[in-house]
Amino acid sequence: MIITQLKDIEEIYGYIEPYNKILIAGCDGCCQPPRSVNEAKLLGQLLELKARTKGKDLKWKAITVLRQCDDRIAATTVRPLVEDYEAILTLACGLGVVMMNKVLPQKLTFPTQNSMFGGAQSNGENNFIELCETCGDCIIGETGGVCPRAGCAKHLSNGPCGGMVDGMCEVRGYTVPCAWVEIWKRLKEFNRLDLFKKYRGPRDYRTSTSPGYLEVYKEYTNIEEEKEEVKG
Amino acid sequence: MGKRPAYSNLCKAIEAGKFVITGELEPKKILDLSEILHGAEEMKKTGKIVAANVTDGPQGDAYMCSLVPSYLVQEKVGLEAVWQVTVRDRNRVALFGDIIAGAVLGLKNILTLTGDHTALGDHKKGRPVYDIDSTQFCEMLSIMIDEGTDYEGNKLEGGKIEMNYGCVANPNSNPREPEILKVGRKVEQNVDFIQTQTAFDIDEAKDFLKDLEQFNVPVLLGIFPLKSYGIAWYFDNYIPGVSVPKDLLKALKKAEKDNKGNKPAKYAALDKINIEFFEPFIKEIKKSTKAAGIHCMAVEYERLFDPLLKDF
User: Fold this and answer.
1) Which of B92, B130, B152, B183 to probe the A interface (max A CBs under 10 A)?
2) Quick one: pLDDT band at residue B240, thresholds 50, 70, 90?
3) CA dihedral sign, ordered A14, A15, A18, A23
4) Which H helix or E strand runs over A165?
């Protein structure tokens, strides 16, 4: 899921200050913590109050979209409403903001969130943790299931570094475990220190060059060809 | 290692079987290098210090880059530099460019480091680089020096890089095993020497040196004489993994308190504490370990060199 953090209300209000009537779109996709219609309503109420302090009567409507990052879903859900409003605010991650601007080019869509990372929920609490940084070159098979790229502040392929103290990382004041110590513990447990000792060469950053692009059908080209043969 | 020639005085001295001593200089946020050069001169005068490390933005702070001070220490003072280069601030392209520039300037030693994270330094909002890590940097240097190409195999024209390079190891590392295994990976990348982070506990240091013996690479054990209680306190609290023995901290504090207002007496008292602690420490390392020498990080504490190093 994509972990987002609500922007400061001043910043959000700054985006919509020139408008009197706005649409606030939540997203029911993978955003966490929840950024759905309830959160959209709450934000609307806050903005309305804020506008009132400035002597303005802000009109708004809160909706939600199944997944704003899907162009067809975003377009079909929001397009019928868009003409009635001057601008759109979205509670989605950055993907949603860009997609809404793409599929509804007649209006400006503004963000209300800072997209933090692709994360997982930890301990069933409202704590989220980055476990994968979608680098495009997964080496977790060699590191006991712990990612040294998402987990290490220096993204080392051959750690730990000298900033590890008692198994903790120098970044964030020794409160976060060193990923490379975690990797070592895990591989030691399974008697696979051969993997730990292995030297890993420099990373190929072309796998994570922006903008990322993947044509899924190409992954299955061989399967398609086989099908063709069967048909033939 | 695949036995690379000893190009530097440091590696020649190690090869000759001498107990070598290196010093440390720290260019900071300053345009005037006279203090650095003075420090280098004092080191040279001792006749004991074979080379001086020149640091590269320690603790993640924005300081003068280490290339130019390394060059000036060699050129103006005639003391060999151990040019410290971290992978924190430069990608592989910039590292390659800097290394050949250093080679042209006659630098002979590189110490490869990961580098303290920018989050620890004085530009906390900055983005650190870490394109390659320090182990990969060692591989890159091996390719540049031994094969005469860049990291991708493109030929380097106009001569050969004649440099030796080392890596670091941390005797304070807890747990130790992953640290030793990591050093093993670096040794595989043909390092010529190892310099360690500072050690205060003699038994721990000896144990660590024993663990490093398997790699058959000369090791210079790091020590850090404590110029003042303030520095000792800072070191104890802010340098990753380093803890200064409580007795030593207490003694330094007492020496400063007892001699308040009397600088010469204070200096004498502080120096005495350092000599009483480090002289037997170095002797023990020399006598009962296979360490090739000592890396003495007495930064801006030149007056201690003569009394501390006179017997080595």
Assistant:
1) B130
2) confident
3) negative
4) strand A164-165
Query: What pairs with residue B295 in β-bridges?
Result: B22, B222
Q: Enumerate the residues of chain B whose CB falls inside 8 A of the CB of residue A199.
A: 135, 139, 185, 188-189
Chain A residues within an 8 Å CB radius of B139: 199, 201-202
Predicted-assembly ipTM surpassing the 0.90 threshold: yes
Whether residue A81 has pLDDT greater than 90: yes
pLDDT in tens, A97-108: 999 999 999 999
Q: Could you tell me if residue B238 is inside a domain?
A: yes
Nearest residue in A to B178, CA atom: A184
Report residue B178 as tokens. Answer: 């992953």
Per-residue pLDDT reduced to its tens digit, B257-303: 999 999 999 999 999 999 999 999 999 999 999 999 999 999 999 99
- For B3, residues 6+ apart whose C-beta sits below 8 A from its C-beta are none
For residues B216 and A221, the model is more confident at: B216
* Pairs of CB atoms within 8 A across A/B: 99
Cα distances (Å, whole numbers) of residue A154 to A97, A164, A200, B62, B63: 30, 11, 15, 18, 20
Using CA atoms, how far apart are residues A110 and A45, in angstroms rounded to an integer?
17
CATH number, domain containing residue B134: 3.20.20.220
Interface test with B, best of A182, A189, A199, A205 (most B CBs within 10 A): A199
**Count: domains in chain B:** 1
> Helix, strand, or coil here: A226?
helix
Would you call A197 and B185 a contact, using CB atoms and an 8 Å cutoff? Answer: yes
C-alpha distance from residue B14 to each of A109, A160, B10, B289 (Å): 66, 28, 6, 15
- Domains along chain A? 2-117 (3.40.50.2300), 135-232 (no CATH)
Asked whether the predicted pLDDT for residue A92 surpasses 90, the reply is: yes
Q: Is the pLDDT of residue A10 over 50?
A: yes
- Asked if residue B263 is part of any domain, the answer here is no
Q: Which of these, B233, B256, B254, B259, lies nearest to B245 by C-alpha position?
A: B233
Residue B138 lies in a domain: yes
Give SS3 for A92.
coil
**Which range marks the domain in which residue B144 is found?**
9-245+281-309
Does B146 map to a domain? yes
Inter-chain touch B92–A164, beta carbons under 8 Å: no
Mutate to test the interface with A, among B117, B129, B180, B198 (most CBs of A within 10 A): B117
Which residue from A minimizes the CA distance to B134? Answer: A158
Separation between Cα atoms, residue B108 and residue B8, nearest integer Å: 5
**Four-residue CA torsion sign, A169, A172, A176, A179:** negative
- Quick check: pTM over 0.80? yes
Task: Give the mean pLDDT of A191-216.
Answer: 90
The 3-state DSSP class for residue A163 equals: coil
CA distance B95 to chain A (A): 13
Interval B3-55: pLDDT, tens: 899 999 999 999 999 999 999 999 999 999 999 999 999 999 999 999 999 99
